[in-house]
Amino acid sequence: MPKKGGKHAEMGKEMQAQCKRAKVEAACSPSVMSFESPDSLFGSLISPIKQEMFFREYWEQKPLLIQRNDPLLAAYYQSLFQLSDLKELCSQGLYYGRDINICRCVNGKKKVLNKEGKVNYMQLKKDFDQKKATIQFHQPQRFKEELWKIQEKLECYFGSLVGSNVYITPQGSQGLPPHYDDVEVFILQLEGEKHWRLYKPTVHLAREYNVESEDRIGNPTHEFILKPGDLLYFPRGTIHQADTPLGTSYSTHVTISTYQNNSWGDFLLDAIPGLVFDTAKEDVALRTSIPRQLLMQVDIADSTKKLSSLLRRLADRLENTRELRSSDMKKDFIMNRLPPCLGCDSDPLTPGGKLPKIDSKIRLQFRDHAIVTVEPDQENSDEIRREMVYVYHSLKNRRETHMMGTEDAAASEDGTSQTHGLRFPLSYLDALKQIWSSNTVYVKELNLISDEEKENLALSLWTECLIEVI
How far, in whole angstroms, is CA 354 from its chain's centroid? Predict the structure, then answer.
């Protein structure tokens, strides 16, 4: 994956009352997309195809082409990103490699034409006009608010990171050779026209990016022209190439991508260590020693029968458990996803409204932006590490570093990535589940022993803008 009514109306009542923000200018343009909820946003993105049909017939199975011929939608798509935006964006300090690549497909290979350092707009335009180079703009949601809104909602909808790239290609040129990606791809055609060819996958639901040679991929299974307002979806592993036809001065499209490393295999790699750890506490078979010199052997065929038996014991335990501990995937998603898009020029979230007291009725807010996990105590270096409850959220994440890799991620003083959230004793877990599962709950009814604990929990969540008093 390249590594979401007027804007006030779309923020939703839940997001308006709870936290103090700078007053937002009313002059925000209306949208043809529905931002009422993540579900409605995705529904409007793939309209007129129904979501049930999309996931039954297309998702991870085959491409979907939606050609709309809708002038209103075409104008909205164009507003997401235009060639004319580049001049102003370059003035903000863009860099080759990090923010922009310029490239061209030459003899079936990608030729990168990047300069060093900062992007100069006049040089960029010269390469575009004279060298027929494609401009690849990385993660434009960092700069374009409407893409931020779309991708933030899509991250809520999929429960997976959603990145984007913009591709601007001059006429008679092609930026990339035939290749396949490791992400689910949604193409929105913004300006001009693009000629697409799709081919049968050589690797279904691929886990990595790869270039394919023309003599290996055969004839296209799909060939068509995308026009402004059109949408194309194809699954990871779908081989594709695209060029701007002669007669079209240039083409601009945005690739919105998701579900990188988000398969059942990835989830098993994430969850099995915790399952083994918990099972070994109760099942002595997992605590017995491995054979002598097993780690020194090349062929472990004699041990596979024992391993199969232990895996069956894990499967039996798994069928009887309601909770599966995720070690990294949940936290990685929350740490790296977009913060909520609250409107034009809004201030960072700060606590507002009434302080929660023992008789207060409270409600969880930003539900899609927070998770509750049980983990070993990260602040206890003793040999015996007790379990604690952690509440992680993305309300303070930085849009400017979204999908830009660890080198640009928000970091603490020691250089490690920061996670925003709270830490509680394990005894707080049931009370947190109450808040997460209820529409509203009284602080005094929280499943904790003392009133002091109940108030402390509510105040901690309120301080992070995760609850409001109603």
Answer: 33
Residue that wins the pLDDT comparison between 426 and 376: 426
Candidates 308, 204, 319; CA nearest to 263 is: 204
Average pLDDT, the chain: 89
3-state SS string over the chain? CCCCCCHHHHCCHHHHCCECCCCCCCCCCCCCCCCCCHHHHHHHHHCCCCHHHHHHHCCCCCCEEECCCCHHHHHHHHHHCCHHHHHHHHCCCCEECCCEEEEEEECCEEEECCCCCECCHHHHHHHHHHCCCEEEEECHHHCCHHHHHHHHHHHHHHCCCEEEEEEEEECCECCCCCEECCCEEEEEEEECCEEEEEECCCCCCCCCCEECCHHHHCCCCEEEEECCCCEEEECCCCEEEEEECCCCCEEEEEEEEECCCCCHHHHHHHHHHHHHHHHHHHCHHHCCCCCCCHHHCCCCHHHHHHHHHHHHHHHHHHHCCCCCCCCCHHHHHHHHCCCCCCCCCCCCCCECCCCCCCCCEEEECCHHHEEEEEEECCCCCCCCCCEEEEEEECCCCCHHHCCCCHHHCCECCCCCECCCEEEEEHHHHHHHHHHHHCCCEEHHHCCCCCHHHHHHHHHHHHHCCCEEEC
The dihedral sign for the CA sequence 81, 85, 86, 91:
negative
Indicate left, alpha or beta for 268 from its phi (over 0: left) and psi (-120 to 50: alpha): alpha
Q: Starting at the earlier edge strand, list the strands of the sheet with 467-469.
A: 441-442, 361-364, 467-469
Of 93-97, 312-316, 344-348, 411-415, which gets the smallest average pLDDT? 411-415
Q: Which residues, 6+ apart, have CB-to-CB distance to 60 below 8 Å? A: 184, 205, 235, 236
Q: To the nearest 10°, the Cα dihedral for 150, 156, 157, 159?
A: 130
**Residues of the chain with pLDDT > 70: what percent?**
89
Q: Could you report how far apart the first and last alpha carbons of the chain are, in Å?
A: 41
User: Exposure of 441 by Cβ count < 10 A (0-12 exposed, 13-18 middle, 19+ buried)?
Assistant: buried
pLDDT at 55 over 50: yes
Cα–Cα distance, 198 to 206 (Å, whole number)? 15
**Is residue 151 pLDDT above 70, yes or no?**
yes
- pTM here is 0.88
Pair 165, 137: CB distance under 8 Å: yes
319-336 pLDDT, tens digit per residue, is 888 777 777 899 999 999
pLDDT band at 100 (very low <50, low <70, confident <90, very high): very high
Residue 303 has pLDDT above 70, yes or no: yes
